[in-house]
Design a protein that fits this description.
This protein has two domains: about 10-160, no CATH class; about 160-385, no CATH class. Helix content is about 45%, strand content about 15%. The protein contains 16 helices and 14 strands. The strands form five sheets. The chain has a five-stranded mixed sheet, with helices on both faces. The longest helix has 24 residues, at about 260-280. The chain starts with 7 loop residues before the first strand and ends with a helix.
Amino acid sequence: MSQDHGAVVRLSYRKIRDVSTPEEEKNSAATYFAVVPAPEILKIGTEGNLRSYIPAHPGKKRSLVHKAIGETIANKPDRFSQFNSGFLVGASKVVVDDQKKIVTLWDASINNGAQSQGEVDLYFTQCKETDAEPNDFNVRVEISVEPDAPTRTEIAIARNTTTRIQDLSQAGKRGYFDEIDTEFQKLHPRYKLARSETDIGDEFINTRLLLQVLWAMMPDALMPEGRTSIEARMKAYKNAAQCLADFEHAYLKRNSGGTDAGRYRYFCDMAGEAWRVYTHWRSHSAWEGQYLRADAKQIRRKSGEIVVADGLVFPALAALSNFVKKNEGSGKWQMTVPGVFREEHLVEAARRQLKQHSGKPMLMGRSGAAYEALMLLTEMANQYANA
């Protein structure tokens, strides 16, 4: 875990409260809520934000959302904190000085609220340019303290793209799942993909989970630029929202002829097979002899069979991505497992990795080392098969 602390920002505050949960404290993390004068928020950068907002040339760049925020600041500043969801600030370390009413942040970044910050900046800049007296108002800030830099990034992604059920409904309503559902049902005619929050019967498959599985099993050739194979597969386990957003992007680019189009074809070709592989491995008979514990949330029993935690399954699915290849005849993506591969060997390797991660599936599912170790096993199987 990274403990290095970089640039320092000091904010004056009106009020501050530590609202950390016991679980956060166990992870050396913390959460504070603070009320600070509006100009203080301009001291913080946006390096960790998924989106940037630079109001240097506001005109056409200001959407209706921006203008609504600006309207509140200019005309109803006393209601800003009620009309605005506030700011999420990530930091690696925080020190609170109650006597001076100053909170010091290391590696601070606005992870949610960059658009609001841009409008606050624009407002004070315009006041200065016109010699107008600016309104005196405060903003609410949530400070998320996490010493580990990669985890801070994941928090920023999750808080910006947390999957709301209606996101799935909107995608379903727009027809994004029509083709992939058709292909899925060719292998699983009794089931169909959930397309809204009301699709809750036994016949409906968890669409977000299917997309996570497909991302975990995606061959390296289709991985997006800028993401390593391991990073993308770990993200599949950790962030269902991002998997859905990335699928929507591939759908919208399906006729582009580029990598996004190829990725969309993979989603459709492999939807049914990926779900078959996932359900097979999460209840594989070889797990029975691995001394997995229900009290450690490694397994649960459902109708008499073992169901293994996804933290064990996803690194295994990532390893199986080495067997996903395009059929030269049909042009479709499919799984081609070499004859030398033994499934029980992958189960044993997964058990060893679980032990290396303190017996906690969640840690294993978030560990690059676990993915690397299991993927090496299937890479070797391919090499022996091709020798």
